[in-house]
TrEMBL record:
<keyword id="KW-0964">Secreted</keyword>
<dbReference type="Pfam" id="PF03227">
    <property type="entry name" value="GILT"/>
</dbReference>
<dbReference type="GO" id="GO:0005576">
    <property type="term" value="C:extracellular region"/>
</dbReference>
<keyword id="KW-0325">Glycoprotein</keyword>
<comment type="similarity">
    <text>Belongs to the GILT family.</text>
</comment>
<feature type="signal peptide">
    <location>
        <begin position="1"/>
        <end position="18"/>
    </location>
</feature>
<keyword id="KW-0732">Signal</keyword>
<dbReference type="InterPro" id="IPR004911">
    <property type="entry name" value="Interferon-induced_GILT"/>
</dbReference>
<protein>
    <recommendedName>
        <fullName>Gamma-interferon-inducible lysosomal thiol reductase</fullName>
    </recommendedName>
</protein>
<dbReference type="GO" id="GO:0016671">
    <property type="term" value="F:oxidoreductase activity, acting on a sulfur group of donors, disulfide as acceptor"/>
</dbReference>
Amino acid sequence: MRTLLFVFVAAILCSAWAKTKRDDNKVKIAVYYESLCPDSKRFITTQLAPVWRDLRGAVKVKLVPYGKATHDKVNGKWQFTCQHGADECYGNKLQSCILKDRSLLDTDKMELVICLMSQANPDKALDTCLEQVKKLSNSDKIKRCASGEMGDNLLASYGDKTDLIQRPLSFVPTVVINEKYDQAVQDEAMNNLKAVVCRVSINKPSSC
């Protein structure tokens, strides 16, 4: 019995180590963006989406929906001011709740964000996009999250992550490659993210 337990634990540890090694070889793309920002919508739909779909095994994407917002706690409750108004705050919260929903696969989360950012009004298009990934049953849960304390806490945590990069961000979206911000790389990524990924990739994908 002990031998079987040892083998089982060893298999889990080896699998976790192998995944970590695979992730270490991926190009890390962090995107600090806003749900109603035209530049954010353009970057995610025309640059990030094709790179993620074509080079999925070569990249690891982190999405941070906050942008140039501010957050302060007043009488025990988070208060947010977003660059494009209250609708953007709600849209950011929706996407925060999607990204932290453990019942959704990572691929579902990415496709949902891409879908939302392709809509005229991302803050009002949740059900449309959930239908596309066949997850409409998650609608009420995500909306409750976005409208409640959990959504506030998630958005505040994304605000803290954004503030570590720059407070406030000088440009949205801000794109960080391999956990190091570089203005020249940011400028190139806005128009040719694939070229950036192919250049810095350790194991270059065949499509490069």
